[in-house]
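Table S2 (continued). Query chain:
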Amino acid sequence: MEQTKTLSKSARKRKLVDTLTAYSFIAPNFIGFAIFTLGPIIFAVLLSFYDWDGSNPMKYIGINNYTRMVADPRVRAAFMNTIIFVIGTVPLTLVCSLGLAVLLNQQIRGRNIFRTISFFPYVASLVAVAAVWNMIFSPVNGPINEILERLGVMDPPRWAADKDWAMITVIFFSVWKQMGYYMVIFLAGLQGITAELYEAAELDGASNWGKFRNVTLPQLRPVTFFVLMMLTINSFKVYDQVYMITQGGPGTSTLVLVYEIYNTAFKNWNLGYSSAISMLLFVLVLVVTIVQFRGESNFAKE
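Corresponding output:
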């Protein structure tokens, strides 16, 4: 009996040591998350109910920031522009990156060079590529408009300088900048598909399109879902590309939520109101993410 109790105490002690050892490994990451992520999130939620300019004492105003946000035309414009940007960017980037991945997964000559060229915009400096992009799409002497004029277009678009074309320009720039990164992810997924599946489909008489539709797409479903999630979240958080191309203009034609949060917080120094706008963005991303997860789970069950 005493020997059994001794063994039981020893086992509990060993389990406690193992538990403490495990917690000691995750503690640095958890502490960093609590200080730099969880803490600021909680503070932002509380701050959205206050009026604060960063220097004077905070003043509790309840839901006034949220009621003001509903009636604010800049916030409404930023909300709609963010939705338009996501709807325009996500499917186009998804299609372009998947098409590039399928093309560059073939045994073609110089494919490694083309992969590098496709990936280069993603790793290149945003300032540099934005400057080149603005030069190429310059409405005055840009090569794109010169080509359009030679093709017979009498009044080519003014691109980023035109409120009707500015958002389209930002979307094109975003797709060109990001599709190389997601192409690499799709390439990894394509290379994980076994050749036997394609051989079986070929024996059944499937065409290239049939193999793509019945083999490639179903096998890439987890990768596609991951790319869709990352693309959607990153598109809702867009800021730097808008800043470098249009700075939210002309007018409010390319003003997005993150850019408005930045202007409200660090130009107007209304930190409480900017926190309320950030809560709107948080809820928007949360709802879209939940819908995507439920859609994926329902599709998997079918």
